[in-house]
UniProtKB/TrEMBL annotation, chain A:
Pfam families: GST_C, GST_N. Coiled coil: none annotated. Its EC number is 2.5.1.18. One of its GO terms (biological process) is toxin catabolic process. It comes from Citrus sinensis. This is glutathione transferase. It catalyses: RX + glutathione = an S-substituted glutathione + a halide anion + H(+).
TrEMBL record, chain B:
SUPFAM superfamilies: GST C-terminal domain-like (SSF47616), Thioredoxin-like (SSF52833). It is an enzyme of class 2 (transferase). Residues 3-84 form the GST N-terminal domain. GO terms for cellular component: cytosol. This is glutathione transferase. Its EC number is 2.5.1.18. Keywords: Cytoplasm, Detoxification, Transferase. It catalyses: RX + glutathione = an S-substituted glutathione + a halide anion + H(+). It comes from the Eukaryota. It is found in: Cytoplasm, Cytosol. It comes from Citrus clementina. Belongs to the GST superfamily. Phi family. Residues 92-219 form the GST C-terminal domain.
């Protein structure tokens, strides 16, 4: 039996749960090794050896140590092709390229403004950091323009890359989940008909529900 | 007979240059179809049908249309993996995984810090604005921290993913090329290993062909 892969980082981290969601979709056994970031675990020399930027997640399997959640997800899909959801990153080069362009769109266009909003609206208050109204407004506008494109696309296609749920849709789950559940700006997603419909579908997947459960468990004493 | 790849974009554009460099490294024939940015061709419906985000480049290969330059390079590097330079190390699982890691590092760590600086020096002036020193300073600080990690990495290997040139190094070329023309270039040249790496990758023939056309802002 294969050794479970290791993922380092707290389940509340958006990038960590991007990887966890992917592992659950692919039915790859894993061990989540939580880090206490408040205590600076992620800046200690031992951790910096596997993640030189001092960020989470880091990933290890029998062969290799990796960083960057989207690189880890692509690696998992390509190296465990027969496990779990086989089509998550496409089963042929054309499907893969179509998914990859939307995964890049997530990373380049959706992630920056949504991450900024999650930080300002959900995390800053908890960390006693003052919110920056200018940053919030600027990123709401940026995100709205991106979601206008998504609204049109998701009127033509069930999921971003086509008729099947893919790694591109999955990659949106962590930030979108915080926006909808931990801020008062969730309607930026839910008030758009097609985006709202898509959000409802992707957030209802068993894999994502398990991630949400893991996050809730971290909260309980 | 295979169809000719079409790349819609502009020679001065960083993201178009990224894809062209990859195509040259792989010795793949392609046609560059100019997109008229100044008349906003990229924001009109015919172009939006190819890229709903209204950005260049767009790649067409037969029935496949792609946006996002890094999705294009990944596709080209894989489709033509047996031709030209081996950019994705597909024969070695570990090397291939490390290439993926450093592709994402460029995408998520390097790019967000360098792009605003290039924007302030090259794009803001043509919009009639002076470069915003606050934005430049904040991003220089971020970029310096990233380059500290690069400096350490490149002191133990010639390139980012190992002792081999890969798509991860290539992706850094276009923005760094313009960055080196700004007053901030010293943060690259004062780091010995980063400087050596930059001089190596920017002198590759495939990039030299492309950088000849990267004269944005020059009169």
């Amino acid at each position: 039996m294969a050794t479970p892969v290791k993922v380092y980082g707290p389940p509340l981290s958006t990038a960590v749960c991007r990887v966890v969601a992917c592992l659950l979709e692919k039915d790859v056994e894993f061990q989540l090794i939580s880090l206490n970031m408040a205590k600076g675990d992620h800046k200690k020399p031992d951790f910096l050896k596997i993640q030189p930027f001092g960020q989470v997640p880091a990933f290890q399997d029998e062969k290799i140590s990796l960083l960057e959640s989207r690189a880890i997800c692509r690696y998992v899909c390509e190296n465990y092709p027969e496990k779990g959801n086989k089509g998550l990153f496409g089963t042929n080069p054309l499907a893969k390229a179509s998914i990859d362009q939307w995964l890049e769109a997530e990373g380049q266009s959706f992630n920056p403004p949504s991450s900024a909003l999650v930080f300002q609206l959900a995390l800053a208050p908890r960390m006693n950091i003052k919110q920056d109204e200018g940053v919030i407004k600027q990123n709401e506008e940026k995100l709205a323009k991106v979601l206008d494109v998504y609204e049109k696309r998701l009127g033509e296609s069930r999921f971003l890359a086509g008729d099947e749920f893919s790694l591109a849709d999955l990659s949106h789950l962590p930030n979108a989940h915080y926006l909808v559940n931990a801020t008062d700006r969730g309607e930026i997603l839910t008030s758009r008909d097609n985006v709202g419909r898509w959000w409802g579908e992707i957030s209802n997947r068993d894999s994502w529900k398990k991630v949400v459960d893991m996050q809730k468990q971290q909260h309980s004493p | 007979m295979t169809t000719l790849i079409k790349l819609y974009g502009a020679p001065v554009s960083t993201c178009t240059a990224r894809v062209m460099t990859c195509l040259h490294e792989k010795a793949v024939d392609f046609a560059l179809v100019p997109v008229d940015l100044f008349s906003c061709e990229h924001k009109q419906p015919p172009f939006l049908a190819k890229n709903p985000f209204g950005q260049i480049p767009v790649l067409e290969d037969g029935d496949l249309t792609l946006f996002e330059s890094r999705a294009m390079t990944a596709y080209v590097a894989e489709k033509f993996k047996e031709a030209g330079t081996d950019l994705i190390r597909h024969h070695d699982l570990k090397e291939a995984a490390l290439v993926k890691v450093w592709i994402e590092v460029e995408s998520q760590q390097f790019h967000p810090a360098i792009a605003p600086i290039v924007y302030e020096y090259f794009v803001a002036p043509i919009q009639g604005k002076s470069p915003d020193q606050g934005v430049i300073d904040a991003n220089l600080e971020k970029l310096s921290k990233v380059l500290d990690v690069y400096e350490a990495k490149l002191s133990s290997a010639k390139y980012l993913a190992g002792d081999f040139y890969s798509l991860a190094d290539l992706h850094h070329l276009p923005y760094t090329y313009y960055f080196m023309k700004t007053p901030c270039a010293s943060i690259i040249s004062e780091r010995a290993h980063v400087k050596a790496w930059w001089e190596d990758i920017s002198s590759r023939p495939a990039f030299k062909k492309v950088s000849e056309g990267m004269n944005f802002g020059e009169k």
